[in-house]
Amino acid sequence: MGSGKGQTRRARTSTPAPQPLPVAGELKQKWAEFISDSELQMVSLYQYYLRKSSRKILYVDYERVVSELFQDAVAVGAIVLPSAHSVEDFEFKLDISQAGYTTQHRLMMRLTNRTGTSLQLLSPYYYLDPDVTMESANVVIFLEDMQKSIGCYF
């Protein structure tokens, strides 16, 4: 026995190494380049993505702004997606639930082809309020949260 004769060899399999997440500084730099090159420093998110600067933002407006912000961030390389996915694979929805007298609003990110896997993102009411400009640190923090969520779960 001890020599291993007659035993079958086990196939060695290797799992692909996970893609490294961009360093926070890289995300911030790429987003800043996009904002500067497009001269969007003082433009609000809602003016840019919705063509309106109303204080009254609807739930669907938040979803649309987050979706288009995500698409731009991926297009300029600020957010990197796993090679198996594209921007069309992701969906953003506000989940509104009632618990007694309390209403909860949670922004959820999920893959369109996968049911049951949703991740809660940062609050768009705080980070992406109507006064936030494209160059705001709040936008960068929101994008970093998206990137981290994608890297951890998808």
Describe the structure.
The chain has 154 residues and is an alpha+beta fold. It has one domain. It contains five helices and three strands, in the order αααβββαα. Strands 1-2-3 form a three-stranded antiparallel beta sheet. A hairpin with a 6-residue loop joins strand 2 and strand 3. The longest helix has 17 residues. It is globular. The N and C termini lie far apart (45 Å). About 10% of the residues have low confidence.
Structural class: alpha+beta
Compute the separation of the termini in Å.
Answer: 45 Å
Shape: globular
**Biggest beta sheet summary:** 3 strands, antiparallel
Low-confidence stretches: 4-18
Report the radius of gyration as a whole number of Å: 21 Å
Report the order of strands and helices. HHHEEEHH
Strand order of the largest sheet: 1-2-3
State mean pLDDT (0 to 100 scale).
Answer: 82
Total helical segments: 5
Instruction: Count the beta strands.
Output: 3
In total, the number of domains comes to 1
% residues in beta strands: 5-15%
**Helical percentage:** 25-40%
List the helices and strands and how they pair.
Elements: H1 24-37, H2 45-50, H3 59-75, E1 90-99, E2 102-111, E3 118-120, H4 124-127, H5 137-153
Antiparallel strand pairs: 1-2, 2-3
